[in-house]
Design a protein that fits this description.
This is ABC transporter permease protein. The protein has helices at residues 3-33, 36-62, 74-91, 98-105, 108-112, 118-136, 139-148, 159-183, 185-188, 192-205, 217-226, 234-241, 246-280. By secondary structure, the protein is mainly α.
Length: 283
């Protein structure tokens, strides 16, 4: 066998894997692009709740001496709210129960027979979903907020690239968390309990309803270092609002990268344990 054949055989699997991953991302994008009415309705709902949240937080700022609650000025708070409303569908912290349903129905057997790991295939599809949401659901709330409220515009060149990287990492972290929560159905059969807990906890402790910086410092630091939840929304929103200096701004993204690796590793471990359980039971 000559050297050229050896070279092709080495890079072939990588090219094949990359192509397969790209196809799965595209399929996830096309799948969600068919839900046009849901996209419009979701954007309208996000805008309505954006007005409610922004009014509450600006009222809080008006009642604080110096108008900087937790270090945010009114423009930064408005940016926090409206960018958060746009990212809600992109990161997708709620609503995904597909894996749990396939486990409960037994359709997961078809996924296990495919040459691509379920974690990889579902991650690719979720990235496609997030890309579609970024193109269709992110803009309308931000435009509505810019019309009715003064928003903070980035003043540092690194803010926008860091924000985009932060959003990608947040999508990956959120997927890994949702995958682990859904995977409890391998043992529980019905994962509605863990999914409900995730729905409640991810919104409150992820920074959706209010900035976590309003909480005591010791509690906020514990959340940042002990759980991936603040990396879902709080981190990208603090990055784009430029609440912190450049060093801490970059540090938030580094923490997100750490949690992305950890959460995906946990998801892969849980999937391997689940497959072993199915084999032992004769599934």
């Amino acid at each position: 066998m000559d050297a050229s054949v050896l070279t092709i055989s080495r890079i072939g699997p990588f090219r094949s894997s990359a192509t397969t991953f790209g196809v799965l991302v595209g399929s996830g994008f096309r799948r969600y692009s068919t839900y046009r009415q849901a996209t419009i309705a979701g954007s309208f709902t996000n805008i309505v709740f954006g007005f409610l949240r922004c009014s509450v937080l600006l009222a809080l700022a008006a009642g604080v001496a110096g108008q900087r609650p937790a270090g945010y000025d009114p423009e930064q708070l408005a940016t926090y709210v409206w960018v958060g409303q746009g990212l809600l569908a992109v990161i997708g912290i709620w609503g995904w129960t597909e894996l749990a349903e396939r486990i409960r129905s037994g359709d997961i057997a078809a996924d296990l027979l495919r040459p691509v790991s379920p974690v990889t295939s579902y991650l690719a599809a979720d990235l496609g979903r997030a890309l579609h949401a970024m193109l269709t659901r992110f803009g309308p709330p931000l435009v509505a907020g810019a019309i009715f409220f003064p928003l903070h515009l980035p003043t540092r060149w690194q803010t926008v690239p860091l924000f985009l990287l932060s959003v990608i990492l947040a999508v990956v972290i959120c997927f890994g968390c949702r995958y682990v929560v859904n995977a409890t159905a391998y043992w529980l059969q019905d994962a509605r309990g863990p999914i409900t807990l995730w729905t409640l906890g991810s919104g409150v402790l992820g920074g959706l309803y209010f900035p976590l910086r309003l909480l005591p410092d010791w509690f906020t630091i514990t959340l940042w270092l002990g759980t991936p939840l603040p990396s879902l929304l709080q981190a990208p929103l603090d990055v784009i609002a430029e609440r912190d200096g450049p060093a801490l701004q970059a540090g938030l993204v580094v923490v997100q990268a750490y949690w992305a690796v950890v959460v995906l590793a946990v998801a892969a471990f849980v999937q391997r344990r689940a497959e072993r359980k199915l084999v032992v039971q004769g599934g």
